């Protein structure tokens, strides 16, 4: 299991300083909407120049197939190791994206977002007229059949994703609260033991690390348990 730290910080300098503080640790860094919209490729280049961190660019793309495939091709030109799209964009979009990316010499891993970890079952049911497990199962199957590399889901769906597809199909699980921290806006939260039992390949942790007084110490503690 790998630790992926969400860099959802308020400025370029705060992100770079956090990367410097975490230098040398075996972890991935997740650059999300806030940081990427503000700082763009410059932030990714700066982080990569600090250490050989793997970068997950979490933009959760959702559009028509050709627009998504164009965007993914642009992202493949940046030195990032993983990107993601919304599974609800559908199979045509996924197949178009993977056809385009597989034609390149090198491509990032591509994950599909199933159900955001900020949804509880009631809110999800009202929007999508089905329960989370059913939706995750369907989304996982079409993502796997389309040649993607894995899913973003909560810990509670990680086993279901693997059972519906393949045990090597990656699960990346946000909503982790390692030491009983506040859930904040997350609904389907879990701890590290639970993530392990459910075979998560990546755990994503943001606020419990970057809001801590000693982020490096927290990361080291997490790394000893995973
Ligand atoms: O601060 P926290 O640990 O809740 O951060 C979780 C991160 O994972 C955020 O950057 C959020 O955008 C992202 N994420 C999520 N749920 C998903 C997909 C991504 O929380 N389903």
From TrEMBL:
Orotidine 5'-phosphate decarboxylase domain location: 2-222
Organism: Campylobacter insulaenigrae
Reactions that this protein is recorded to catalyse: orotidine 5'-phosphate + H(+) = UMP + CO2
Family the entry assigns: Belongs to the OMP decarboxylase family.
Name of the encoding gene: pyrF
InterPro entries, per database record: Aldolase_TIM (IPR013785), OMPdecase (IPR014732), OMPdecase_AS (IPR018089), OMPdeCOase_dom (IPR001754), RibuloseP-bd_barrel (IPR011060)
Keyword annotations from UniProtKB, A to Z: Decarboxylase, Lyase, Pyrimidine biosynthesis
The protein's name in its UniProt record: Orotidine 5'-phosphate decarboxylase
Keyword Lyase among record annotations: yes
PANTHER family: OROTIDINE 5'-PHOSPHATE DECARBOXYLASE
Signal sequence interval, chain numbering: none
Lineage: Bacteria, Pseudomonadati, Campylobacterota, Epsilonproteobacteria, Campylobacterales
Functional summary from the UniProt entry: Catalyzes the decarboxylation of orotidine 5'-monophosphate (OMP) to uridine 5'-monophosphate (UMP).
